[in-house]
Amino acid sequence: MKYWPILTACIAYSGSVVAQQAFQACPTQAFIVQSPAKYPILYGVNLGTGSYATLSADMGIDNSLNGVGFSYQDNFLYGWDYQHQTLGKAGSDYQSLPLNIEKDSAAANAGNFYVGDVAINENTWYGYRRGKGLFKIELDNPNRLQMTQVSGSAAFATYSITDFAFHPNNGLLYAVSNGTTGTLLEIDPSSGQATELGVVLVSTQGKFTFGAQFFDPDGNLYVSNNGDGNIYRIHVEHDSPVGELFSYGPSSSTNDGARCALAEVPVGNNVDFGDAPDSYGTLIASNGARHQISEQLYLGSRIDNEADGYPHPLSDDDSRPDNDEDGIQMPTGLEIGEQAVMLVSAHGTGYLNAWFDWDQNGHFDSDEIAISGHSISNGTHTVNIEIPSWAKAGETWARFRLSSIANINPTGGVSDGEVEDYAVTLTETGVSINYYPSASSYTSIAYEDLYPDQGDFDMNDVVMHLRIAEYVKDGQVRRIGFEAELAAMGAAYHNGFAIQLPNITRDRVKESQVTLYQQGVRQTAQPLEADQTYAVLIFTDDLWQQVSTADECLYFRTEPGCGTQYRASWQMTVPFVTPIDQAEMPSFPYDPFIFATPNMDHGLAAKNIAGGHPGRKLEIHLKNKMPTDRFEQAYFGQRDDASSLSQGQTFQDHNGMSWAIEIPMTWQHPLENQRLDDAYRDFIHFAADESQTTATRWYLNPTLDYVFKD
Amino acid sequence: MIPILNTHSAPFQRYGLFVIVLCLIGCGGGSGDEATDSTVVAITQPETNTPDTTTPETDTPETDDNDDTETQPIPTSIDDLVVAATNGLTPSFVLRVDVTSAPERGYFSLCNAYQQTSSQAYQVDYQSCLLRAPLNQGALYRELQVANHHQQLIAVIWRYDGSAPTYQTWQYDDNTSRQSLNMNLQ
């Protein structure tokens, strides 16, 4: 048993003894106590977004509660009660009851404390006061609570802080100091000695006062600045720790915080995230842009909640019908060096900020803010922006954030509003864009892959989605862009996918500047195939490398119960050496084809004709499209094929039926083994009419039992 | 060839503002550049979705009642289907767009998702556009390839001086094989 030689003060309370209920074990929210009118108000703060709610406007005392800490050992809050000048204890009813404590002489002379926390590995409250030292109160024996100065700590008590927090597992205290710069301090609770770990924050206006500081279990320290409520995050164990603005919380002149450091920082499920690629800050792990959903403030007419961001290309807004990116319309193009008009639709009143990645470096840099703190009221408004002359033509991203805070960053959490991310296209002045079928839809190319044998006509061995954009200036096509995705694959054979540009010779493509992204990742392999007369662009040699099947499923999205929102995706940009006259360009969708994956089996019929695994020798094109130079023309006229190359009649059987068809929308393809003519009865009438004026929209009328549904 | 009476109705989609206009042949046709019906069916979503499948009515082709012995038997399935060797099964048509006498500095969009908000104004989904083009001295000419189901479109010209945009709807004309959209702002 310890002996306490110098106990000069004893504070005793005989008031109401009410059994206090502990908090639920280790709550995830942070507690902030503020005393704007002297008496304390307790808030629960979601650190992820900065959103907060009042837990108690009356904690039962008439003066501040400060130096607050959460005890992991007994699940109570402890803090310094200014009214009674002792430690207060609060449970789940948020009522602070003063505790009887015995103070040693140093503690008795130390006055009140606004810096405090409870340790993790011992049930002890620690309090600090500049010039006085570090003090502690062991909490395990409520009948004898003794407050003592940590030996020797007075000599170290020179640093200016307004809160500190215990690390979740190394037993040390950390704090960020106040002033125009914030220095991270590591404090040894056994001595009170502090070590400076470097400047982690620099103020751009005014001085910091970090009245509330907390940890999460990963060693991230969160510090809340009293003046503006901004919450910064610092990983204290990094070699060179730096603070990042994490979210925007409540501000107050007096502020103290406590949190169970072993609880994760959840974002909750009532939060809206962006969906740009994660390099822009989209996932919570990247301090992604996020907004607590509020019914009073959002863009457009929809907002959805997410547990985390879903960055492109796996965005839920790309794959789901209820895309909530609906608040911004761009009725004019984004031409470099010109103005552009934004149509902003807002529900509620707030501030709009917007960033464009003008230089396409994958980040929203400080000079890429296009709309800054623009006040927006309820309704639809026009906002003009300027595209800088140094912007780079091509595909990039824009982020729009509406919130009640005027100036926010492109990342971090906000307590209301919405973030919307848009893929946008920048062009040179005077460039128009011709989309097929449109800027947001796809055409479907559906293949049978048993060629030269005719298959089962379920037209789902490979189903590719394709969108094409031609960039035109003065009647000349400067470049083309493709967006492709694999929609279905009901075949065991391995196939690649490529597009030929009929009549556009290979040398007209600016080969060094062709770019291909697969699943959002830039590919190093050159897509322009060698030894071809006309340009042939390879997306992938093997589609099966890009998808996996669901459990119990043989194929990808062709069998009942085998649905998924996942799509393998590709983006390709193809610039030309010199612009090509529009009249020379092939008609849409050019010539998309599949080919046998090299060195893989593709059936006996294909093998016998090619004299081995066919690889690039076997191609399957839309009807009457020409094969490439790699194709083995010996396939023509074999088995079910009845092509006549000299007449330009290719890839058709003896009845004129093809191995591939185009459907100019996101098509509901037939289920496995369900024939096209059963799934779409009008197809027969469309195909039988040589004038192509009958049942031209045959693909809109499926027989529901025969088509695939996710 | 006898046009088919397309009986399926425009799908009322569950989400959002826009409704894709699908029902057109036999729904009034119209050859003018203006929408013939001010109650334009509105569109609900970008058509990245699968088509509405709640009305699986299928078109029944009207058969030629004439006893034309030269006529091929009407096929009933792929088994007896004969497709002309030259028939490429193309699912699109050509639309000629001709804009004249528009503001010198203007931006043209041709889009397929929109709804009418008043007699003069429309709400347009600019992510549904087929063509986005700055005007060249107030003029523009293009021959566009358009998917067969894009039977009704809207053309918009935005100015940069804050004045109201100009809208003009276009509808597929069954009575001609040459589809065109003329926009003369004089």
TrEMBL record, chain A:
<feature type="domain" description="DUF6923">
    <location>
        <begin position="62"/>
        <end position="261"/>
    </location>
</feature>
<dbReference type="InterPro" id="IPR054215">
    <property type="entry name" value="DUF6923"/>
</dbReference>
<dbReference type="Pfam" id="PF16130">
    <property type="entry name" value="DUF4842"/>
</dbReference>
<dbReference type="Pfam" id="PF21959">
    <property type="entry name" value="DUF6923"/>
</dbReference>
<dbReference type="Pfam" id="PF20009">
    <property type="entry name" value="GEVED"/>
</dbReference>
<keyword id="KW-0732">Signal</keyword>
<feature type="domain" description="GEVED">
    <location>
        <begin position="351"/>
        <end position="425"/>
    </location>
</feature>
<dbReference type="InterPro" id="IPR031025">
    <property type="entry name" value="LruC_dom"/>
</dbReference>
<dbReference type="InterPro" id="IPR045474">
    <property type="entry name" value="GEVED"/>
</dbReference>
<feature type="region of interest" description="Disordered">
    <location>
        <begin position="308"/>
        <end position="330"/>
    </location>
</feature>
<feature type="signal peptide">
    <location>
        <begin position="1"/>
        <end position="19"/>
    </location>
</feature>
<feature type="domain" description="DUF4842">
    <location>
        <begin position="475"/>
        <end position="699"/>
    </location>
</feature>
<dbReference type="InterPro" id="IPR032295">
    <property type="entry name" value="DUF4842"/>
</dbReference>
<protein>
    <submittedName>
        <fullName>LruC domain-containing protein</fullName>
    </submittedName>
</protein>
<dbReference type="InterPro" id="IPR015943">
    <property type="entry name" value="WD40/YVTN_repeat-like_dom_sf"/>
</dbReference>
TrEMBL record, chain B:
<feature type="region of interest" description="Disordered">
    <location>
        <begin position="42"/>
        <end position="74"/>
    </location>
</feature>
<feature type="compositionally biased region" description="Low complexity">
    <location>
        <begin position="44"/>
        <end position="58"/>
    </location>
</feature>
<feature type="compositionally biased region" description="Acidic residues">
    <location>
        <begin position="59"/>
        <end position="70"/>
    </location>
</feature>
<protein>
    <recommendedName>
        <fullName>Lipoprotein</fullName>
    </recommendedName>
</protein>
